[in-house]
Amino acid sequence: MKAFQLGDRKGLGSLTATTRPDPVAAPGVAIVAPRLVSLISRDLQILRGTYGGDQPQERIPVSEGVGEVVAVGEGVTEVQPGDRVICGHFAKWLDGKFRPDIVFGYDIGVNQDGWLAEKVALPAASLIKVPDALADKDVAALASAALTAWNALVEMCHVKAGDTVLCLGTGGVSMAGLKIAKLHGARVAITSSSDDKLAIARELGADITINYRRHPDWAAELMAQTGDAGADIILETGGEDTMGQSIAAAAVNGRIVVIGVTPGKGPAIPDYVAFIAKNITIRGIANGSRAMFVDLLRAIEANGMETPVSKVFKFDDAPQAYAYFAAAEHVGKVMIEF
User: Fold this and answer.
1) Residue ranges in the chain modelled with pLDDT below 70
2) At 112, is the secondary structure helix, strand, or coil?
3) Could you say which DSSP state residue 207 is in?
4) Which of 96, 175, 215, 266 has the most CB atoms within 10 Å of its CB?
5) CATH classification of 2-141+307-337, choosing from 3.40.50.720, 3.40.640.10, 3.90.180.10, 3.30.420.40?
6) Which of the following CATH numbers is that of domain 146-284: 3.40.640.10, 3.40.50.720, 3.20.20.140, 3.40.50.620?
7) pLDDT digit string (tens) for 42-54?
8) DSSP 149-211
9) What does pTM read for this prediction?
10) Which residues pair with 85 in a beta bridge?
11) C-alpha 73: how far from its chain's center?
């Protein structure tokens, strides 16, 4: 089969086309033929050697996609050949509370081969059947950003109608968070350095948009636009250097959910007094479980939520897809079709 591998992980040029023997369906395993896969920020970080620790050059990348089951191993009852399926990239986290040994022990596209091959072996118990009513493009990009946003907003913060949700930037988690928050009747504020991207965010339902280049003190601008109420929930995807402004932008009893591992130069909590005085909760999360993914998929099916797509590349053009994604001029998902 055709596949791509990480290579020496020194940058975009490391992604290498290769061929591999077809994977065999071991007991408890299903072989899936990808139909459409989606790139996320950590796919770039892995290729640049800044995420995931040491990985073999032969590792097949990409953490999320949708595909068709083509074979199953002994004992598999969850799926059968012909089923269209998706899978969380922390594939062994089926349900229950976060446990590092379970969650990080089996990570598709990091310490396990990912989706950027003509066939991929996946734990059958981790797979979720896709309803016929949902298009490939609306489910291929759910496993990372959308599931993380669902965990943060629904599972962790119990978002409700009337809440104000602040999403930092227009990356995958923020855009998924925008749609999920609006689905629950919340008001959404979103930041970006691009007026064009903010215009797209408004088209997708954003109520407040702030250009942080025009307003470097974007927390003060948010306060001004909310009558000094602030944000009840903040999806903190900016990293350590934005935490101070997130605290300043938070409402009393606000919840800040830390997503991603972006390092910074300053102290993570520069205004310790405000953190205490507002009774703010700060909590980190790592994606979500299969049970959460099932709930997310049900919500998408019931409400007809669509995934914004920026551009779709052919499988053989995967390096160009990575380069387009790395340029960071897009809003919406960058996908590769088989």
Assistant:
1) 261-264, 266-269
2) strand
3) S
4) 175
5) 3.90.180.10
6) 3.40.50.720
7) 999 999 998 888 8
8) HHIIIIIIT---TT-EEEE-SSSHHHHHHHHHHHHTT-EEEEEES-HHHHHHHHHTT-SEEEE
9) 0.93
10) 67, 129
11) 29
